[in-house]
């Protein structure tokens, strides 16, 4: 093991560049998957004829596919139908679709957990179905969804490492390149990558626990 050689300025800079791309990929996918996941979850909860069934089928299909398959599909298969995405957007697209399906289930469960009495009270006070959903059910449900959604985002950040399969220059891709320079770099570089992942994920984990504690 050669910690001094592995942690030379060029290697550390290259590793941090990969980590920055990891964070950019994760942040973009988090924003997009959150918006799409909320929409899909609400549509499933609303039980709109045909629409809710189609959304449910889509969610169940995506949830039961490997994320790696979706990443490779976005990069290699979509160009066959005229949709050409770069490495970054191929990864973001796959992560967004996969995580949105997971979040949709969290949203649906959160909305279903809202006390029926509160819904009936809102309807009896003159609010329509959409108004009740928007002003009562969604705000109450979202409070209960925050911890599991944050936990899902932690998984998303870790899942960005799967983009190494299509050579996106994220953290694990760059760590692999540095490790290939010298067999003595493998352990130090993987330790460094682990520390970077841990720092961000543990922070998010603490945030999720704090939010969960507030709701007890």
Brief synopsis:
This protein has 216 residues and is mostly helical. The protein is built from nine helices and no strands. It is found in: Cell membrane.
Task: State the main characteristics.
elongated, single chain, transmembrane transporter activity, 216 residues, MetI-like_sf, MetI-like fold, Amino acid ABC transporter permease, mainly alpha
Structure, explained:
Helices cover about 80% and strands about 0% of the residues. The protein is mainly alpha-helical and about 220 residues long. The N and C termini lie far apart (about 45 Å). Helix 7 runs antiparallel to helix 9 (about 185-215). The chain is built from nine helices and no strands. It has one domain (about 5-215): MetI-like (MetI-like fold). It is elongated, with a radius of gyration of 21 Å. The longest helix is centred in the first third of the chain and has 38 residues, at about 10-45.
């Amino acid at each position: 093991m050669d910690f001094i050689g592995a942690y030379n300025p060029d290697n550390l800079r290259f590793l941090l560049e990969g980590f920055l791309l990891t964070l950019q990929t994760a942040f973009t996918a988090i924003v997009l998957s959150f918006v799409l996941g909320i929409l899909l979850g609400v549509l499933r909860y609303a039980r709109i004829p045909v629409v809710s069934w189609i959304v449910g089928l889509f969610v169940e299909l995506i949830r039961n596919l490997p994320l790696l398959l979706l990443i490779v599909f976005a990069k290699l298969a979509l160009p066959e139908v005229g949709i050409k995405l770069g490495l970054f957007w191929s990864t973001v697209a796959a992560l967004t679709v996969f995580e949105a399906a997971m979040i949709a289930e969290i949203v649906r469960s959160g909305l279903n957990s809202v006390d029926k009495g509160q819904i009936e009270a809102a309807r009896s006070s003159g609010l329509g179905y959409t108004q009740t959903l928007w002003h009562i059910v969604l705000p109450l449900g979202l409070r209960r969804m925050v911890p599991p959604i944050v936990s899902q985002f932690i998984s998303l950040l870790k899942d960005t490492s799967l983009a190494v399969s299509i050579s996106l220059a994220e953290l694990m891709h760059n760590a692999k390149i540095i490790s290939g320079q010298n067999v003595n770099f493998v352990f130090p570089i993987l330790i460094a990558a682990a520390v970077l992942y841990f720092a961000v994920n543990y922070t998010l984990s603490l945030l999720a626990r704090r939010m969960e504690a507030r709701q007890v």
